[in-house]
Specification:
The structure is a single chain. Residues about 1-20, about 250-260 and about 260-265 have low confidence and may be disordered. The strands form four sheets. Strands 1, 2, 3, 4, 5 and 15 form a six-stranded antiparallel beta sheet that branches. Strands 10, 11, 12, 13 and 14 form a five-stranded antiparallel beta sheet that branches. The protein has a two-stranded antiparallel sheet with strand order 6-7. The termini are far apart. With about 260 residues, the protein is an alpha+beta fold. About 15% of the residues lie in helices and about 30% in strands.
Length: about 260
């Protein structure tokens, strides 16, 4: 009897063993990060998902995971505009991760921005500066900035930043939090209040930057207010939160898609 059972299941087992990557399908995860004016950033990341991987020991259901490509959708429009930015992938079945991703995007001075690019006033496209302030600092300047932050008991709040054209200058601000502030044990905690900002300005739109300074009166952030409640910060849409609630850890397709046909129609 056992022999007959083995014979009956052997073809199925062999099929599972040899399908491997051939059985993988491409899935796209989509997150909408809403802005106060009704526009939104749309994050999309693809990966290969193998449904039968659960039957194979040491196999992974998710492979070839891409970063989130960031696009922008204006209010009342379905067209996606490439922002030239990408965010490292984070699991979306955890609400905190979605808030972390969206908080890295925002709108300041009426200009949607990703921290590394922004939509120029009166234009549709997004502009990527020659360099961003922190990314272009040499080692000596970084050491000086780190020493100033340590002296004042401040830390940069993860990878969040705001960038915009203000009074003809390109301005970038990185929110800072106090070392001993409550809810700030983890720099990703969205309830952490902003204490100050690290500000850099450029008169030639990113070709060169003036020395960084710690400012207690930010242009784009309000001190004493948690990052999650800042006026310009993008937030996950209710639809995105609903779609990924109680989501399968193996990356199964959500019951609802935030954007049909990749938001292009």
């Amino acid at each position: 009897m056992a022999y007959r059972c083995l014979l009956s299941t052997l073809p199925f087992c062999l099929a599972l063993a040899f399908m491997g990557s051939a059985g993988a399908v491409e899935r796209t995860e989509t997150v909408e990060c809403e802005l106060a004016d009704g526009s939104a950033f749309v994050l999309q990341a693809t990966h290969q998902w193998t449904p039968l991987a659960v039957f194979a020991r040491h196999a992974s259901a998710r492979e070839d995971q891409d970063s989130f490509k960031v696009s922008y959708r204006a209010r009342g429009s379905r067209e996606l505009v490439d922002t030239g930015a990408a965010l490292a992938h984070q699991r979306l079945d955890q609400r905190a991760n979605m808030e972390v991703l969206c908080a890295r995007l925002g709108m300041y001075e009426g200009q949607p921005g990703t921290g590394a690019s922004l939509r120029m006033p009166g234009e549709k496209r997004f502009w990527v500066p020659a360099s961003t302030a922190m990314g272009d600092l040499d080692e000596v300047v970084k050491q000086r900035v780190d020493a100033q932050l340590k002296q004042r008991g401040l830390h940069v709040m993860d990878k969040n930043s705001a960038i915009a054209i203000r009074q003809g200058k390109l301005v970038q601000e990185l929110p800072l939090y106090a070392t001993n502030a409550p809810d700030c044990a983890d720099p990703n905690v969205q309830q952490c209040p902003v204490s100050a900002v690290l500000r850099m300005t450029s008169n030639d739109r990113g070709e060169t930057w003036q020395p960084a300074s710690i400012e207690s009166a930010p242009y784009f952030f309000k001190t004493g207010v948690a990052l999650a409640r800042q006026a310009g910060v993008a937030r996950p849409s209710a639809r995105s939160l609903r779609n990924y609630r109680n989501r399968d850890e193996n990356g199964a397709k959500p019951l609802e898609q935030p954007c049909q046909k990749k938001c292009t129609e």
